[in-house]
Amino acid sequence: MSDKKTEQENFEIIIKPNKSWFYIDWQGLLHYNDLLFLLVKRDFVAKYKQTILGPLWFIIQPLMMTLVFTIIFGNIAKLPTDGVPPMIFYLCGLLAWTYFANCLIATSTLFVDNAALFGKVYFPRLVVPLSIVISNLFAFAIQLATFLAFFVYFKYFTEAGAVIQPNLFILVLPLLLIQTALFALGFGLWLSALTAKYRDLTFVMGFLIQIWMYATPIIYPISMIPEKWQYVAFLNPMVSVVESYKYAFFGTGVVELNYLLLSAAVTVIVLLTGILVFNRTERTFIDTV
């Protein structure tokens, strides 16, 4: 009898919060890769489940926004686009921005949205925001294919093709996509910690994202901002990302090494502090959600 009791004690597992706020359970993330895959599948399938058009909305939504921007800002407001046809100018900016915004919005409420799951079973909580960032890559891929179709048309089948000058900087875009994902992840972790305690933030998130979009040169070129004030705009990491997309595909925009390094530095700071706040919040959020 005592042997059985000793054997049970030897197999006793105690799960408790980590002491370090900066701790990342890499081994746990690898161990729960199946859960990560299931959450990615859930996020992708659930988004347009029971809709008629399904994943076609990944194409329709940015095209509708591009059409509205073209009519209002291109034809009515007459905002310049550095000689690039307004439609693909806006579509290019939205390509970079939409992925960031979708990741940020979904991550910002993950404690509230997954409270029941977090309260029932143990797994590394970072699996959930990672699944959001990964699942949105499918939408990004579809929107990238859509943009490339319009890009090829305007480049090779219209008179505006002479203005459009793609270059080898396109090879850097995968790195910028990773940066966008990490920045959205870090900022989303910050917001998730705040929305777990202050639900009011969930009601203003859409408004804040919209303001942020207009503060990023998506519907206008960075050249509209006086040069002496451009460094202020580049404190927003998404400005460097959007400008890099425009430079890679069109040969326009402002791409400088110091601005890219500044953008990367802000991203790292936001990510590290986001993980810190996230790890701190996950210990006690179940009592407040």
What's the structural domain tally? 1
Mean pLDDT reading:
88
Low-confidence stretches: none
Shape: globular
Helical region count? 13
Multimeric organization:
single chain
Quickly give the structural class: mainly alpha
Number of E strands: 0
Provide an overview of this structure:
With 289 residues, the chain is mostly helical. The chain has one domain (23-287). Helix content is 68%, strand content 0%. The chain is built from 13 helices and no strands. It has helices at residues 2-10, 26-31, 33-47, 57-76, 86-108, 110-113, 115-120, 127-157, 173-197, 200-214, 230-233, 237-250, 257-281. Helix 9 (173-197) packs antiparallel against helix 12 (237-250) and helix 9 packs parallel to helix 13 (257-281). It starts with a helix and ends in an 8-residue tail after the last helix. The model has no long low-confidence stretch (mean pLDDT 88).
Summarize the structure.
This protein has 289 residues and is mostly helical.
Q: What's the helix and strand layout?
A:
Blueprint (H helix, E strand, L loop, with lengths): L1 H9 L15 H6 L1 H15 L9 H20 L9 H23 L1 H4 L1 H6 L6 H31 L15 H25 L2 H15 L15 H4 L3 H14 L6 H25 L8
Helix pairs in contact: 3-8, 4-5, 5-8, 5-9, 5-10, 5-12, 8-9, 9-12, 9-13, 12-13
